[in-house]
Amino acid sequence: MNRLPYRAVIVDFDRTLLHTDKTISGYTAGVLRRWQEAGARLFAATARPERAITEYCALITFDAVTTLNGARTVMPDTVYENPIDGVGAASILEQLHGIPGALISVETDSGIYANMDFPLWKPVVVEDIRAVAREHRVYKVLASHPEIPAEEIPVILPEDTYSTVADRKLLQVMSRSATKWNGIRNMLDAYGIDPAQAVYFGDDNDDIEPVRNCGCGVAVSNALDCVKEIADHITGSNDEDGVAAFLAEMFAGS
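-> structure tokens emitted (254 positions)
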């Protein structure tokens, strides 16, 4: 058995592990399986909700996943939750509702709601998006606008929340406790693994903290410049199976 240089492999999904067509290659699945068989723990850290990763979890048996940017971390025997405070969620939705043309969706404890249809996400479309905060536990609020850059959407956030921009076009608002890094620490702690013993792969703004704080932070070549600037290594793009190529080379040298 190979002596692995890291005890945990942690991957982001979109634009990192997944190809642009949202598939995982057999090669990548095989490399991850080889690491797991050699004793590594496999974790995923994604902005996606659980319902949007079931096909990947069927292909790769992750030991734990942190979803919704850390709003929910799912372990084999427990779930950690970091929702947005109800009053804060109501304030955010009230402001966004007042912006003509804003596309708003809300991830909750009972699925996704939106003020208009998004065929890819299949939300429950509601007439008044503000009502969602009164009726559900809110994990994440997302907004975009056809004319306003995501980072310029005019919303004053409660002090216990923060925002990031995903894919250069989507504003995401979460509780300050809901970060990928907090979710990753929960996963690592559950298995007694120090962050220095983990390798992390990412591409976007919410990957900066884990890339910086894990023992080995790797950016795919299609990552944002701000991620590549702080990464320990840069590997091939998501469409080039960069994650698997890096892990295969590291495994061969172990």
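The CA atoms of residues 30 and 225 lie 29 Å apart.
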